[in-house]
Amino acid sequence: MSLLEIENIDVYYGDVQVIFGLSLKVENGSVVSIIGSNGAGKSTTLKTISSLLTPKKGQITFNGDIISILKSNEVVEKGVIHIPEGRRLFPLMTIMENLQVGAFPKRAQGKEDENLRHVLALFPLLSERSNQLANTLSGGEQQMLAIGRALMSNPLLLMLDEPSLGLAPILIKDIFETVMEINKRGTTILLVEQDVQHSLSISDYAYVLENGRLAMEGDGKKLLNDKHVKKAYLGI
User: Cα(121)–Cα(143) distance, rounded to whole angstroms?
Assistant: First the structure.
């Protein structure tokens, strides 16, 4: 059984259908990417996994339990942690306060010190500036904090939505190296990312969404060499 299984889901915004019969799997310990153009349904898929949206058809299973019938906070307690596009930090709280909020789920309680050591070892800058307000950080620093806050929740599955958005190229490289390091330490990754070159290069498996439908799937590195992917998403 896969860690995450999405089975034939339809998702709507009001009366408008945006996901059509989508099925995908994420194996435990893997890095999986979802790629596609703007409006393809990538972020909607993550929101549906997180129970911010409810599928009208189909179901989502995590670790053997159906989670598409749960509330979003209950999904978090299962170990599914979602870093949304735009980071969504608490801007007038300090770095340390943002990290402490991440430890709120019951599944993370009792592991706060251990998880904090892990986060600060991964991002030493957060330790150096622990009393700095989140809204005074650069884009790259805010992304570090968003990832750190998510790790404080002790995730089994970490979902990242456009983590490189708005970052300089050198910082994008650092973010993807961080994602790989988190995965090496045992956390499964589901990644939505416009930077197709970077995302596919680190992915064990990948799915291509087009207009809310699954268009292609396969080994991430092999998809990098696919003619359609090259033309549509890499401009080659």
Answer: 16
- Outline where 103-233 has alpha helix (H): 112-122, 124-128, 139-151, 169-184, 196-201, 220-224, 227-233
Q: Which residues pair with 33 in a beta bridge?
A: 191, 206
What is the reported pTM? 0.93
List the chain domain ranges: 1-74+189-236
What's the token pair of residue 146?
Answer: 């968003």
- Homologous superfamily (CATH) of 1-74+189-236 is P-loop containing nucleotide triphosphate hydrolases (3.40.50.300)
Residues 131-157 pLDDT 10s? 999 899 888 889 989 999 999 999 999
Torsion, CA 27, CA 9, CA 165, CA 129, rounded to 10: -60
